[in-house]
From TrEMBL:
PROSITE patterns, A to Z: HTH_HXLR
Organism whose genome encodes this protein: Streptomyces capillispiralis
MF GO annotations: DNA binding
Span list, region Disordered: 132-154
CDD domains reported in the protein's UniProt record: HTH_ARSR
Domain HTH hxlR-type: 19-115
Compositional bias annotation for Low complexity: 132-141
Keywords attached to this entry: DNA-binding, Transcription, Transcription regulation
Protein name stated in the entry: HxlR family transcriptional regulator
Amino acid sequence: MSPSSTERGQGPEWTDPDCPVARTVDLVADRWSLLVVRDAMDGARSFTEFQRRTGIARNILTDRLRKLVAHGILAQRTASTGRRQEYVLTEAGADLFPVILTLRQWGERHAFSPGEPHSVLVDRHGVPVPEVVPAGADGAPLGVETTSVRKTGH
């Protein structure tokens, strides 16, 4: 589920209504929302799990979960026990995996001192995930020197 037309509208809630990066930042790029998405990708489902993993205050977590559900990044469903609600990634939420992966890899390169221990993301075989390098249609690596934004007219 994606945001409704009202949520997507050209209202004042968008920092830069024409920019996909700005809209994405508006939706998920506060500190806590990205950590909730990260933990959902790692199997967290309940309010208690999210709070334990992040250390986030209950009121802030309530707000972020509500926002992520409203924008179609998480969905609420009844847990298999039938006793409580749980949160699961939607397709849109799962589509944030490359974003989380890229942030992780940037952090591995720039947020730790050489040799400082940190967690490692591994694939289903236990092998560390290789560095993500964007590539163009011709297979050549992409970077700030080889890309530009094409503005659309209204």
